[in-house]
């Protein structure tokens, strides 16, 4: 299996934290977001990673040169249109990397290792679309409508969501080719530069393909979109970085 991390975005909603550095390099309790992701990717037995970079690409690549990946093959792909595009274009630029079973991870996601283990461990699912049921949902949440276990709709503008879509998705076997084809079709549509790559999943739904969802329930996962999310990630870092509450609070006080 290969991992693709989408980390090209400007992270403007996290300003001023992202004034000079991309959000994947933000500190979440003594660890960068992308360092945390790479560590767990490696511990789940995945040794090949492609990272789509954009804003601050030089800083990300500098971090990767110093990162001890313990034998991991890590490459970067540059999205020169990062300022005006969303994740559909970034994944389209990485489509050639989708040549085997693939896990796609948003570059602003933080999670405990068990979450990633659970998702990549569902080997019987050709497409693994995890969700998380919450009490309330924000405008920026990637929401889903689910009937039974079947995905009915996915997008940010859903008024009555069943859950939030977790930004870690696995494609296996024929679904790798199906996604590549759907991504290629989506980038040829009007407004493609503003679309998220889940529009390719919506396209497959519209063609009648069946997608089953599963709730990660109590496992920790969140994405970091706003300053309040960054503070929440730092406060909860002991849950996914295995740091003691005392060290966590000291780190928060320092930042």
Rounded to an integer, what's the Rg over CA atoms? 17 Å
* Order of helical and strand elements: EHEHEHEEHEEEEEHHEEHHH
- Class in CATH? Alpha Beta
Structural class: alpha/beta
Task: Name the poorly predicted regions.
Answer: 244-255
State mean pLDDT (0 to 100 scale). Answer: 92
At CATH's second level, what is the architecture?
Alpha-Beta Complex
Query: In CATH terms, what is the fold-level topology?
Result: Spore Coat Polysaccharide Biosynthesis Protein SpsA, Chain A
Q: Please work out how many helical segments DSSP would assign.
A: 9
**What is the CATH homologous superfamily assignment?**
Spore Coat Polysaccharide Biosynthesis Protein SpsA, Chain A
Strand content: 15-25%
What gross morphology would you assign? globular
Distance between the termini: 36 Å
Describe the structure.
- This protein has a single domain, classed as Spore Coat Polysaccharide Biosynthesis Protein SpsA, Chain A (Alpha-Beta Complex), CATH 3.90.550.
- Helix content is 32%, strand content 22%.
- The protein contains 9 helices and 12 strands.
- Strand 1 (2-7), helix 1 (33-43) and strand 2 form a beta-alpha-beta unit.
- Helix 5 packs across helix 6 (198-206).
- The protein is globular, with a radius of gyration of 17 Å.
């Amino acid at each position: 299996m290969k991992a693709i991390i989408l980390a090209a975005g400007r992270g403007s909603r996290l300003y001023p934290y992202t004034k000079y550095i991309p959000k994947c390099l933000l500190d979440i309790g003594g660890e960068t977001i992308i360092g945390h992701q790479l560590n767990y990717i490696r511990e789940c037995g995945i040794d090949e990673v492609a990272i789509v970079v954009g804003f601050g690409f030089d800083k990300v690549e500098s971090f990767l040169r110093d990162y001890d990946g313990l034998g991991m093959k890590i490459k970067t792909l540059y999205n020169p249109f990062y300022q005006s595009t969303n994740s559909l274009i970034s994944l389209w630029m990485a489509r050639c990397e989708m040549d085997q079973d693939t896990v796609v991870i948003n570059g602003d996601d933080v999670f405990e290792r068990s979450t990633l283990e659970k998702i990549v461990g569902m080997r019987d699912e050709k497409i693994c679309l995890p969700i998380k049921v919450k009490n309330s949902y924000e405008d920026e949440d990637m929401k889903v409508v689910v009937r039974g276990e079947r995905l009915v709709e996915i997008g940010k503008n859903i008024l009555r969501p069943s859950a939030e879509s977790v930004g870690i998705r696995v494609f296996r076997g024929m679904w790798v080719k199906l996604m590549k084809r759907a991504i290629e079709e989506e980038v040829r549509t009007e407004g493609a530069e503003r679309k998220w790559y889940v529009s390719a999943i919506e396209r497959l739904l519209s063609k009648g393909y069946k997608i089953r969802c599963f709730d990660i329930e109590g496992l920790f996962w969140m994405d970091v979109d706003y300053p309040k999310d960054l503070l929440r990630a730092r406060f909860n870092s002991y849950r996914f970085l295995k740091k003691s509450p005392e060290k966590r609070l000291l780190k928060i006080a320092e930042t």
